[in-house]
Amino acid sequence: EGTAESLLNNVNDNLRKVEEAVNVELSCFAPQAVRCSLKDLVPYNLTEGWSEEAKAEFCSVVGSAAVEMRPLGQDRDSLLVDLRKAPMEQSTDVPFSVREYLVFVEVARFYSPVTLGRRPLMYYPPVYPEASKELDAVVCHINNLSDFYIQLVDNMESLLLSAKLQDCYNALSEDKLRVYCPVIGQACVARFEDELWYRAEVIGHPGGRKVEVRYVDFGNKQILSVSDLRKIKDEFFALPAM
């Protein structure tokens, strides 16, 4: 009974009848809340419907800041939309689709095809040595005898690059430059088994919130959690892939 009474008190504290004169004044304003639905998205498990995890992921990614909304149609009483997280100041930080993010983290699925937006920025291709020129090189990764990777020994830039990457990315908080929805071909910075950061490129989506990357300065591939990726700052595009 006490609970019912306190509930009633809360209602009384927060609700008021509107006087007729005020009602007339307010009638010229359209309702401010618009009911929306993320277009073409269905629960990951159709028999169980939308999970609490899906709602939590949606809340975490849209947050309380403004997001860009794209109306894509209308369905009975709902506006069908996609939401996009606004970019930061890095030119590599393309706004990402909230729908694509929810599909990537496996709380939702598309029930019709989706087209991806603009292509991500790429690294400069490696510089090939001139024919017949002798150079000192280190074999840094071997897949087999007809597929292996080298780095040129006299390349001090690669040492400087590594030092700068560690200084920059170890100083960042966990959420800073976080990658929400990695795109195939996207340049990024990825943590390796040695806990150091390296330049990488996303080459696959194996599922389970994992991504496959290729470390562009060494040639090896790795499957990682998306939490081990960070957006790449513009300055780290200056050097070609090593």
Automatic annotation (TrEMBL):
Domain (Tudor) ranges: 181-239
**Pfam families hit by this protein:** TUDOR (PF00567)
Q: Which residues form a coiled coil?
A: none
Tell me what this protein is called. Answer: Tudor domain-containing protein
